[in-house]
Write the structure tokens for this entry.
Amino acid sequence: MFEDQVSIYLQRKNVTLEGKKILVGVSGGPDSLALLHFLWTKEEEWKITVYAGHVDHMFRGEESLKEAEFVKLFCEERNIPFSWERINLPEFIKKTGMNSQKASRECRYSFYEKVMRKNSVDYLALGHHGDDQIETILMRLTRGSSGKARAGIPFIRIFGTGEIIRPFLCLEREDIEEYCKIHNLNPRRDPSNEKETYSRNRYRKHVVPFLKKENIHVARHFQRFSEELADDEAYLMKQAEEKLSFIVTKKRKEEVVVDINRFLSIAIPLQRRCIQLILNYLYDEMPISLSALHTEQMMILLKSPHSSGNIDLPNGLKVKKSYHSLHFQFNFSPTKSFYYELSKMGELLLPNGYNIKVEYINGDHHTESDCILLDSSSISFPLIIRTRRDGDRIHLKGMDGKKKVSRIFIDEKIPIQKRESWPIITDSNGNILWIPGLKKSIYSHSNTNSGSNLLITYKKQ
């Protein structure tokens, strides 16, 4: 029954182990020991080569060392090639700042990858089973995970030079314990598995037994749910990937900009997954604190009638809305203000990449939007090119009184992040002569006159 279940499961997953090299990650506990033993018994029938790998995290001193020696002896008695490594995990945690579970996983998988590469191994086989699947799905749903994370533990995935497989996901903990008993395997028990300080142990001891009382086939149902959700997610992600180039207007290492109107034109399930794809691109490693709640906050921000808003995501990623664009960016730093003076003629390259040029001209000249013509006798020098200040006002042509510069930025729909670096040109008395590219003051002329004419141009370098 046990062997048939596993064989049928592998067939259903279209995985053929025949002729393959398989590394089994073995802790010495019931699940991994049973998997190692099972695959070892199939070496001749399936024409496979089985290797064993073990990591002593040095958390429990002599106790964990004895577990390593137990696994080593188990392999020697069966002529199974055995590799192991002692890693000072407490020291690694101190150095990296990772929590114990994440640190132990990273060290363990790094070791497995080295062994696979050294021996040209095809598969890393791990002993996760159906009860583990229930626990994982419930924990992730409770935490607020989104996307494929809700599907729990995958049966297969790319890893290192090969793939990870989990042949026991079709089994339950009781099946594995029974297998160990029948074959006198005498596995080692990690006492930390009994501590309720770990959330997984609480699910294992209290939630899973309750669910099994409600339905003895609950593990089977959770596994089917996992597989169906994973298939659905893969399809929707493919659709979202096709839409991503349509909605993204800028993409670089630490920044992505989205066209909000285009984003809102696609189906809502694809909207959520496009956000997920953007986060996957920006984060080297997805923070554990990032949840579906953050995605929902971004969806609300995108649909808000307000032209601006922002959300802070874990690890310094900021999401900012400005009119029809949504910016995802790490290390949003305030733009530094600038202040320059120009006496009479000269050129100046501004931090935003634009060039300011001041020159005297003779003869006719019709001004365009990228330049302004001034009567030099009516203004005081030096000219000042600076960033905006609170209370800035400009006296526009044909307007009684002055208008706030901040209001002009809003009316012209200038993105918030650009306003702080937008140049303002004044004379030495503080009169605003021009907001380049936006508005000209009463000091500007349409054509040259008989006096001394000053031409200022503002162009991209």
The chain has three domains: 2-216, 240-330, 339-460. The mean pLDDT is 89.
